Each structure stands twice: as C-alpha cells, then as structure tokens.
Amino acid sequence: MTPGSIHRLARVIVAVDDLEEGVEDYAMLLGRGASDPERALFGLRNTSLQLVERETFASEVAPLERPGVAALVFEEDGREDDLWLPLERTRGIPIALTRDDREDVPPAPQRAKPEAAAAALDHVVVSTGDLDAARGLYGEQLGLRLALDRPFPKRGIQILFFRTGGLTVEVVGALGRGESDGPEGGAAAYAGASDRFGGLAWEVPDVGAARVRLLDEGFEVSEERVGHKPGTRVCTVRSRTHGVPTLLKGPELG
Hints:
This protein is of the alpha/beta class. Helix content is 16%, strand content 35%. Strand 8 (145-152) and strand 9 form a beta hairpin. The longest helix is centred in the first third of the chain and has 12 residues, at 19-30.
C-alpha cells in the first residue's frame, strides 16, 4: 500500500454469538433494516456495518474471546480481492484491505423516523499501549490523515484523531498519570503490547428522539448529556449491542 491509496473505511465488522439475534438488535439500534440480509450488512452514508458469527470469524481470521468489534476493512485503490494484513503489522487489530464496494451495498432501508435513525458512523475507537507505534500504523502505513493529536490530562489519555471518508478512527492511549472522569479508565486501561477495539459512535440527527425510540423498544439507554465536542449531545446504549460500547451522537438542537 502507498500513502493516500486508502481513502475510506468500507466496513466495520462486529462479531456476535447469535447472528439472527444480532441482525434484529442492530436493525432496531440503527433504526434501519439490513441492506443485504444474507450478508448481515447494513449500508450507511459513509461506511457499512457487517455482522459475523464469532466462531466463524475466530476460525478464519483471528481468535476472539468475546463478541464485539472484530475488524476494520479499508478500501484501497486498485485492489481486486480482500487482503488481511498480518496481525504482527497491525498490533493485533484485524485489518483488511478491499476494493470499492459501494455499488454492492445499497443504503439500509429506513425502519424509524429519519431524525431518530442512525445516518452514519461518527467514529470507531481503538485503544493502544503505544501511541507512537499506532501513529506509524494508521498514519504512515495506512496513510490516514491525522487531523488532531490531543491530550486530555484530567482523563489521563491522549487521542489521535485519524480522518478517512467522512468518519474518524480515534486511537486512545495513556498520558502518564491522570485522574479519569470518563469510561476509558485512565492510563492503566492502555497498558499492553497489543491494541484492542473500543466502541462505535453512531451519528443521529436528533439524540433525544433516538433515545426515546430505543427506550420504547426495550433498550437500556443513559440520560442525554453534553458531548465532549462542542455543540453535540450524546447518550450511551447499554444493552443489546453485542459487546460493543455504543454511543449515539448528534447536534445540539435549539
């Protein structure tokens, strides 16, 4: 690969223990039906979500101890077939390169009012024990644009914000010692030789409307709150996410 040849996150793969249940839960979570039920694929504005059986993924790609985010698949110019990068090059994070598949993934059909349904993926989180190595992987090897490198002293972390195709890959690492006031758990949460996936944040037009809809459908959802990014509101989905820490994020409305 050469810098600049990757310009989009084509798919986020989530591994689940029960594929039928997972597809139904994510259809309700996103407010959208599957674009391709046979492939358990949901097409969104800037990427796709694909659900896979955890045991199948573990036997074919990489071992998985529990359900959750399993892999990132980036689109590479000129590629014909999928290529899984060696785990030793990706710090243990399964990453694949694929061709442009946008014509193969139609938009996921609306199942909820537009303001209460997910429109896109805002960001995916990767936690790392070595920020310099992660900067080399995502910036130098994959050629993603580092839009922001920001420390958060009170939370004891530093975040590298890599932008590609209208979404962000947030790589989070420890910033020495610090008092954590967030779910990341402070510096101690990022020790270790290998990286691991965190969660997903879905962009919704109206966080309040999406929250009410999910509560009505039996999800456990936090109270709405001010987001870290100015002008945003967020809430956390706490159930039926199949091991994926999940945030809904949208604009501050009037």
